[in-house]
Amino acid sequence: MQSNKRGMFDNFPLFPPEASTLAGEVDLLFFFLIAVAMFFIVLIFLMVTIFAIRYRRRSSDEIPTQNLGSLKLELIWSVVPLLIAMVIFGWSANLYFKMARVPDNAMDIYVVGKQWMWKFQHPEGNREINELHVPTGRPVRLTMTSEDTIHSMYVPAFRMKQDVLPGRYQTTWFQATKPGTYHLFCAEYCGTQHSGMVGSVVVMEPRDYEAWLAGDTSGGSMASRGEKLFNQLGCVTCHLPDGSGRCPTLVNVFGRPVQLITGEQVVADEAYIRESILRPNAKLVSAYQPIMPTYQGQVSEEGILQLIAYVKSLAPAGQTGQTQGTAPGGVASPGNMGTAPGPAPALPANRSNQ
Amino acid sequence: MSEASTRLAHHFDDLKQQKEATTLGMWTFLITEILFFGGLFAGYAEYRSRFPEAFAHGSHHLDIVLGTINTAVLITSSLTMAMGVHAAQLGRRKKTTVFLLLTIVFGLVFLGIKAVEYWHKYEEGLIPGAGFGLQGEDRQQMLFFAFYFLMTGMHALHMVIGVGIVGIIAFFAWRGRYTPDYYGPVEVTGLYWHFVDIVWIFLFPLLYLIGRH
Amino acid sequence: MTTHALPTPQDTVVARPAANYLTNGFGLKSWLLTVDHKRIAILYLISITTMFFLGGFFALLIRLELLTPPGDLMEAEMYNRMFTMHGIIMIFFFLIPSIPAVLGNFLVPMMIGARDLAFPRINLLSWYVYVVGGIFTLSAVVFGGVDTGWTFYTPFSTTYSNSNVALTAVGVFITGFSSILTGLNFIVTVHKMRAPGMTWFRLPLFIWAHYATSLIMVLGTPVLAISIVLVAADRLFQIGVFNPAMGGDPLLFQHLFWFYSHPAVYIMILPAMGVMSELVTCFSRKRIFGYTFVAFSSLAIAVYGFLVWGHHMFTSGQSIYAGLLFSVLSFLVAIPSAIKVFNWSATMYKGSISYDTPMLYAFGFIGLFTIGGLTGLFLAATSIDVHVHDTYFVVAHFHYIMVGGAIMGYLGGIHFWWPKITGRLYPEAWGRFAMLLIFAGFNLTFFPQFVLGYLGMPRRYHAYPPEFQVLNVMSTAGASILGLGYLIPMIYFVWSLRHGELAGPNPWRAKGLEWTTPSPPPTQNFDVTPIVTEEAYSYSKEEPEVVGGKHSASASLR
């Protein structure tokens, strides 16, 4: 598989590229920690070395003066490290909130991990395996699930990692800043080909990305695929758009609160839709009968994501801040009129599958 | 006195130290048991809060009559055990033996009733795993039954071990081994037995009494 | 300077006492049915050393595979079994027992002036339980191994793995009880068997460290046991506890598992810290600086250690608020360790420092544990951890603490107490040489892994991108040196049993009750229960009366 016969030292990086908005902030905190660590390491190293030399035993019977302790010193070297630790914690927590809060104008990408590959779906319909194309300059929200074991989607260049679990959705986000091709790894041990579950994230300038998107003409958008499934699986027979069926309408449902039979209210988000498909009686909508059968085993995780995209498309105002392609087949893009794409970034061969 | 002093192990200074060490040892062991069952209780708590209805329905499948009888049996066995410890403290050889044997009897009754309950569950197809009989939405109850069998099974295993230990202690008691100066083994066996009883006191409402008013 | 302040130099006592615990009965039965804590310590020493070299063998294969980017030495499935077995054996069968089961078993009674532990037969039982657990786990190895990683994450371990999960789980479950019994024994012993005058605050800090370790052993190990029971039950009977399709939650396993496995790392380091206090005081000839602080920081580490398990799960999907709580607590748990390092350094200040091998290991420990501990701060910071979790950064961090810290502490302790245990001295020049080799090999092995981790190389990877090769080659080179370094003491220790210079009761002129007995000690440790009148490490006091030493009849010199 290896086509490069170059020597070991030809490419010998010591630091990962910074290719996302938060990567630089993570690195800054990292360097601060290195400074703190170096300070204490040098301090201890010097202390111990100097003491070991200066106070080395000179005669076999000598007994040094004893010193039992000093409350003052104990307090100093407890409180000072504690304060430093709290500074680090505060800084880190602040950055962590930024990592956790998805910006409002994020575009969606849907991710399904399985042994041993990554499957990506763009709302516009493009599907990728082990390679993910994204534009610079826009936050990207990843909604992810696993078909089998726990995996973890890790892009070192973005300083981004999120475990991907079966049976639920995990969300994370990034905003790419530098075009290029970056490693994508699975970072949670998942079996035999765990180290083969790797790929690339290809970051492109926005117009190149639009061109790339338009280049895939198969299948239609996620929402349109979802609509097809909606009809095929018979959902449409009960979930009539006007609400006259035996089940609630799904128009304008996504992102809005739903009243349950137990009296509590939940927001109809991705997780809620997924659960309602697989375990319909878990959260029954009030005033409706529990007649919906489960679709467990009849629809794949990708299919569920397509159904969710379809339901999302029925509630354009209910999606918090999402402005990308919701209309079937359409691509919302800032001002692109199909200019010629730039040169495709060099894509190293997918080196990992043994 | 020489009878008792032969019970003094070589590394202890006196019987008092030996007894204190033995008792502290058993308390420490019981704390490990609390943590052991605690893991199961933690798992139970998480899943019950997630699937309250499935747990309630599962609970209704359990035989509350047999469960209540078992609770009474076990509490009574703790009573006889305590009386056995007391008799040993007073050096009453026959009484000690009788109470310990009664404790064993009650313990075996408990285990017998448990076996009957398990058999019923088997007949109803409620053993978790491939042969679980409930389908559809009711299949969710399998988690309840997983915890039911794990928790009561672990408890039953401790009961079996306990019956064995009480049997050994009863035998030694009958042989006159325990005196007012040396009855530590009876006392710590009692501690163990009471602990196993207390675990059941928690298990019973958590498993049998969900949603019953 | 007082003239009678040191224990008698050893040149007045050269003969090995004829009657000691080693000569008290010969033959397999006298060893396999012993209740003498010292013999049980030797039994453990042999078992864990065997396991160490087995686990080290797996490490060697791992590092050989990682010399080149593609997975060309072995199949992926085999590699996965290698790192799993390396972790399981090193953690459960070497590190966790190591210091407590060998040095703790040997020394705890002696240091407090007792004739044995509180429950000698339970002590022997703990060894047999360890052996039975080891047999189960080794048979899993023989039958092809297990490939889940030592962490057994679900649902891979319960549903998807094709390896001997249940058999290994049974082995680990059983071995856990060995830990629980040892901890229980130590707790009762320290509470109830101290000699007259040995108050809590006169105890050697080795005892405080082992007491704190024992608290963790008895409180944490049962939770691991139940996690393993759940995994085995889910795997064997498909009961669905961790299977999302049945409503189960894979994260529940992680919470239960790490609730034990984080405190477990303190089981591995606290005893080494206890050894450190003994070494630094002896080889600086000073009382420990800040005794109370060091003693209480052991307890603080034990308590805090139970509150931080979620820092292994920052990217797992737990809530960000839980993550932040675990993060701040994880920063707090670093403070008691820092206090100890400062106190050891202050003990050396204006001391009388000698460079014997045990002290070299102590220096190594201080340096490497400091580095390892500080890298823990990186991991406690959630926003950094997101990047380095599950990468070689974590691997480097824990090896700095467990190998650079715990194993160096263990080796320092073995060297220090070897004369007491065997009555022989090891060759000092070889001791120092091996230590330096180990120190150099260790750093070359694991420092590049910090860089690899930040670069993004995930752990448990059989093959990796070519640009990571140089650092991997450095690491493997270091591992070879480290392995060689570990072999050398094996050789000279065995050599010393026959040919080593005879040690007297106290070759290091150390304070501590164990040094008042002959080397090797008699079976009952002390002919007359000592009465303690001085504080720990009181190097400026009058020489304590040597009980059972050269003046005592039981010493039977010549």
Report on this structure.
- The complex is a heterotrimer of chains A (354), B (213) and C (558).
- Chain A is an alpha+beta fold and 354 residues long.
- The longest helix of chain A is centred in the N-terminal third of the chain and has 32 residues, at 23-54.
- Chain A has helices spanning 23-54, 71-100, 206-214, 222-232, 235-238, 270-278, 301-313; strands at residues 107-114, 117-121, 127-129, 131-135, 139-146, 151-155, 160-164, 170-175, 180-186, 199-204, 257-259, 265-267.
- Chain A folds into two domains: 16-48 and 75-219, Sandwich (Immunoglobulin-like), CATH 2.60.40.420; 222-350, Cytochrome Bc1 Complex, Chain D, domain 2.
- The model of chain A is unreliable at 318-354 (pLDDT under 50).
- A five-stranded mixed β-sheet of chain A has the order 3-2-1-5-8, with helices on one face.
- In chain A, a hairpin with a 4-residue loop joins strand 6 (151-155) and strand 7.
- Chain A has seven helices and twelve strands.
- Chain B is built from seven helices and no strands.
- Chain B starts with a helix and ends in a 5-residue tail after the last helix.
- Chain B is mostly helical and 213 residues long.
- With 558 residues, chain C is mainly α.
- Chain C is built from 16 helices and no strands.
- In chain C, helix 2 (37-65) packs antiparallel against helix 3, helix 7 (165-192) packs antiparallel against helix 8 and helix 9 (250-284) packs parallel to helix 11 (320-348).
- In chain C, 68% of the residues are buried.
- Chains A and C meet through helix 1, helix 2, strand 7 and strand 9 of A and helix 3, helix 6, helix 9, helix 10 and helix 11 of C.
